[in-house]
Design goal:
Elements lengths: L1 E7 L18 H16 L6 E4 L3 H14 L3 E3 L8 H9 L7 E6 L3 H9 L11 E6 L12 E7 L5
Parallel strand pairs: 1-4, 2-3, 2-4
Antiparallel strand pairs: 1-5, 5-6
Helix pairs in contact: 1-2
Length: 158
């Protein structure tokens, strides 16, 4: 059994003359990311590994979560402006020794991907987190594996 956790980056800012890729987190985003990461850790949501979009707002969200978890974190450009297939490609490349992985990414891709693997249709708010149980022993079996939504948390409701 594997566990996939999807995290949409926290609320970002868009200062003048800043490219989309370089957008920083807003103060509210910093606070939401700290609160959400502590909430997950305090509720014994285990995570073995983080993979983040390299975009500043996603990577900084990941780094804030890592203050609570102290894990290895890598970036994968497929998680920036992603399609559903991009997520699957990242998942297939995961090491099978990892049983619980969190992916940090962006909308609309993250909402579309979550809805493609779940019967529970939802829209990710910034810093929203969804956890799925994936009935497989290898990440390479992800596509055909049964998936079950375990939780969906929004920063304003925790």
């Amino acid at each position: 059994m594997k566990r996939l956790i999807l995290v949409r980056h926290a609320k970002s800012d868009w200062p003048e003359e800043t490219e989309d890729f370089d957008r920083p987190l807003a103060d509210k985003g910093l606070q939401d990311a700290m609160n959400m990461s502590r909430f997950l850790k305090n509720n014994n949501i285990s995570i073995d590994y983080f993979v983040s979009s390299p975009a500043v707002r996603a990577l900084n969200t990941c780094r804030i979560f890592n203050q609570a978890y102290q894990l290895d974190c890598t970036t994968n450009e497929k998680l920036y402006n992603p399609s559903e297939r991009n997520f699957e490609s990242v998942i297939y490349d995961l090491d099978d020794n990892l049983s619980s992985v969190a992916l940090f990414s962006h909308n609309n891709g993250i909402s579309n991907f979550a809805n493609s693997i779940s019967e529970d249709i939802f829209h990710f708010p910034t810093c929203g987190v969804a956890g799925f149980e994936v009935d497989c022993d290898s990440w390479s079996e992800f596509d055909g594996a049964k998936k079950k939504l375990l939780f969906f948390y929004e920063p304003g409701k925790i």
